[in-house]
Design goal:
Mean pLDDT: 83
Helix content: 40-55%
Number of domains: 1
Number of helices: 7
Largest sheet: 2 strands, parallel
Length: 221
């Protein structure tokens, strides 16, 4: 319910994503820029949540999900519902922020998963791990970019959900292990989760090659 009633979050990006095909290519002046301040952060969060929501939508359409055991089906259905709620919440929050100036809101993005096999349990879970780990780090790195304390509050609520996702996926990959809070995501010296710089988030997401709609983040760090 808080997703339907609160205001929200996330950090900056500085990359022009490739287009799906030549017919989709727009001139540089036409490429959407995420904007500045909290609005830019909201647009960035919206981009990441669009990706996650779209990914889990396709997972539920694949034969891996259709044949999965009951516990895995429940997990992926929960992930799908959470990410769709995050996406729609951010969409509503941005619309409220920009009002009639709708050109400042990130449009719906296009995705292409290439050779990713949504019928393969190994490929689906490995990709989910990358998306969830990256999302947690991105939200953790967003706090200093937010000026509205209400946005910061909701960012903390969302990142805790994303961290639950990440730990659940890691437990699927290596059951009954400590990988759910592995040293690659929780620092040994101070027991803090990773906080990723925008450039690190960009590298992780773009290495997947899934986002095909071009946009820039020239006004975010």
């Amino acid at each position: 319910m808080f997703l339907k009633t609160s205001g929200a979050t996330l950090a900056g990006m500085g990359l022009l994503f490739a287009c799906k095909d030549d017919d989709d290519i727009r001139l540089p002046d036409d490429v959407f820029d995420l904007g500045t301040g909290d609005l830019g952060v909201l647009n960035y969060a919206y981009a990441l949540e669009q990706l996650e929501a779209d990914f889990y939508t396709r997972v539920l359409d694949g034969s891996y999900y259709a044949g999965a055991n009951a516990s895995e089906k429940k997990l992926f259905l929960d992930l799908y519902n959470h990410e769709v709620n995050h996406r729609e919440f951010l969409s509503a929050a941005i619309s409220a922020a920009v009002g009639s100036d709708t050109g400042k809101k990130l449009p719906m993005l296009e995705f292409d998963y290439g050779n990713l096999d949504f019928n393969s349990r190994d490929q689906v879970i490995a990709t989910a791990k990358t998306l969830e780990d990256t999302g947690v780090g991105a939200y953790n790195g967003a706090g200093s970019l937010l000026s509205d304390v209400n946005n910061l509050l909701v960012a903390g609520k969302i990142v805790s959900v994303e961290a639950r996702h990440a730990s659940a996926i890691r437990s699927l990959l290596n059951p009954n292990s400590a990988d759910f809070a592995g040293n690659d995501v929780v620092t040994v010296d101070n027991a803090l989760d990773v906080a990723l710089l925008p450039s690190e988030v960009i590298a992780a997401v773009t290495s997947l090659g899934f986002i095909k709609t071009p946009f820039t983040a020239n006004n975010l760090p």
